[in-house]
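Lecture notes, unit on protein representations.

Consider one protein chain, 266 amino acids long.
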Amino acid sequence: MAGRLPRAKRSLGQNFLVDGNVQRKIVRSLGAESGDAVVEIGPGPGALTDHLVGNVGRLVLIELDTALAEALRREHGERPGVEVWQEDVLEVDLPARVVEWDRAKVVGNIPYNITTPILFHLLRRPRPAEILLMVQREVADRIVAGAGGNGYGALSVGVQAVADPELLFGVPRRAFHPSPNVDSAIVRITPHAPPRLTEREEARLRRLTRAAFQWRRKQMQKTLRDHPDLGLPREVVDRIGEGTDLTRRPETFAPAELLELSRELS
């Protein structure tokens, strides 16, 4: 089906991957085997689907576009182990509907305007075994950025606290139709298994990280003391400051340091 491209819908952020070499490279990077369950987000006209059908144990295709979902059903719906869900992935309870979700692999060329919501939807507990996504290159750089690096922020911490991200390779604009106005990249995100943090620790870290990077130009001590989501008494901030330099700005704190700080706040 990938050879018969429909008109891309700007409202759905559609840019179809048409470069066969890139398609095959993505599927090889996923490393899915015959017994694996794979969930593909936004399969569109089937650029990756055509390389996955018949090569994995179960293939779930989640496509919001009604016409594309119907075309996928006509082409692949009768194949053993293939399911087509015409749904918004952000509204799908994946752990409840994908058997052995914690062993499943997720792949997708997702709309860039909702990359972050999709990513954090996938990283809610319980998590899949692997996530391989096509994202805007700038977003990929932010996901893998280290403390003090360009792009390091709440997204970096949110992902790295619960998973190991890796930028695999860039994808040129000419690999798509229509060509996007941004560069793209493939990023692999491997959730920690078992999780290294408790659910309460993750919630506390999210609260601290969100507040800190909302006020990223301020010293951490001011954020702890004055941010409306934190608002700690001065004596508590002073006590924490005895062991941690709180005159630093948020972007200088590595995820592990923010985690320790969030534990102290509890």
